[in-house]
Request: fold
Amino acid sequence: MENKKMVLSKQMDPKIWSKLPEDVLEYLLSFLPLKTFVKLRSTCKHFKTLLFSPPFMSKHSPNSSNSSNSTPFSSFFLLSHPQFPKQYPLFDTVHNNWRNLSLCISPALPSLLLSSSNGLLCFTRPSSNSFIITNVLARSSKVVKFPTLPFAFESLTLITSSNNGYKLFVMSTFGSSSQVFVYDSLVHSWSQFRGFDLILNENHHQEGVFHKGYLYFITPEPYVIVCVDLGTGEWQRSNFELPNELTFARLVGDGDKKLYLISGNGSNGISRSMKLWELDENSKIWVEVENVPELICRKFLSVCYHNYEHVYCFWHKGLICVCCYSWPEILYYKVARRTWHWLPKCPSLPDKWSCGFRWFSFVPELYAFV
Reply:
């Protein structure tokens, strides 16, 4: 009996978990294997949020020397829509399913998400005349004041670099002229350059594409590829000759190696087919990679209903994603397998929805500095 009492006295009081400081609890739970931790999350609402805690991320990150996982930590498609205020549903592109957990943003942050890059998210808070750059994993944010007032902006693009810095590119129109502003996080200041009026078109959902030090855009018809040097603000018209019979064209870059083009092809402004092209930089021509399969193409074009200004594209971990502002699914191409797929509709989305679907690539990165 005495031995039994001694054993019982040494057992941990279950209530102690509720008394532990949050950082200590996160640290202890970070030692659990990933599969065990995912199962544990269903037992407590608070545990759900710990999937994105810094200690857990640092141990399970593919860049971590302590990581025992053979596969990298998940990366996500992040959905922004007016019907999900302050919440951003996540589709796990590693495990190919919707997470029960949405990325919840602090009420102190604004709800309008504009851009994402390397684990950083860029919001705007018009009421305070500022942008907010945040790393939700590190729970850190930085307020970047507008460069001038009043400030009507468009075509914002967040670009991160390998030196742990980032740049914000925005265009702003004053009367009949346009200006470009570039914020550099390493010097904490804005630079102002002349704009390029032909870029100011109806497609506000497509961000610029960063490729080998330049930010690329496609002008409205007649289509021309132009680029701007983020350091000097100098604009250039590229000599990459575009394919014929384009009804819309969107650029996609994989970072610094390859540049792709998604195009609608047809006549009289009506697309009959869609194609994927890859740039051959030696010969300065676009080489056709894939013709989007007929049934998939027909569905996507019916979704757009020839409103091609709603079409935008982005790159995500080996996937070329083609989206429509008015449709809740993503059409994506697996570059390594050369196959096309549809992302299933978010299960929490109501049966009736409105326009406003903005998709972003979200690759959690604990050490992305704001």
Summary: The CA atoms of residues 217 and 315 lie 15 Å apart.
